[in-house]
Amino acid sequence: MAWYGGVFLFGLLGFGFGLIPLELRPKYIGLHVSFGIITLVLVVASMESGIAELMGLDSICWPDYTVTSADTNPAANYSKHSFGCRLGNGAAILVLLTVMFTMHALIDVPTLQTTPLIAVKLQRFCHDFT
Questions:
Q1: Which residue, 47, 9, 20, is CA-closest to 126?
Q2: pLDDT digits (tens, 9 = 90+) for 25-40
Q3: Which of 36, 66, 69, 107 is deepest in the core (most CB within 10 A)?
C-alpha cells in the first residue's frame, strides 16, 4: 500500500499539479509508468497468494477427500470442492486474465510509427496544461 501511495503521490504532485517542469516530464514519465506496472504486478501477486493460501487449507476446500494414490485426473475430483472454493479458484483465474489483458494495454509494443506511442500521449498530456 505504501508503494502504491508513493507512485500515486508522485504522479499527482509531479504531473497533476505541475511540480515537474515540462521539459523534465518526458524523462520522468517512463519511471512513473515503470513503477506503476511494478505496483500492479505486486498487487496481483498479493491477491493470488492470498487466494492460494485460502484454497490450500485442507479443512476448507477438501473436507471429504483424502489422497491415497496419485491424482492423475484432478477434474474428476473437482466436484468434491465446496462451492466457495470453486468460486475462489475461478476468481484466481479471472484475476490472472485481468492482469494479462491490463499489461497488454499498458505496455507499448513498438510499431511502424516514427514516434513512440507513449511520447505522443505525453505530448498531448503536456499540451493540455499549457
A1: 20
A2: 887 887 887 888 888 8
A3: 36
**Per-residue DSSP letter, 108:** P
Q: Which amino acid is at 48?
A: E
All 3 cell numbers of residue 121? 500521449
Give the Cβ contact number of residue 102 at 10 Å.
13
Gap between the Cα atoms of 54 and 73, Å rounded: 22
Determine the length of the chain: 130
Nearest to 23 by CA among 128, 124, 123: 123
Residue 56 CA to chain centroid, in angstroms? 22
pLDDT digits (tens, 9 = 90+) for 63-112: 666 778 887 887 887 777 778 888 888 888 898 899 888 888 877 665 55
Count other Cβ atoms within 10 Å, centred on residue 81.
19
Q: Could you tell me where the DSSP H helices lie in 1-130? A: 2-11, 25-55, 58-61, 83-106, 117-128
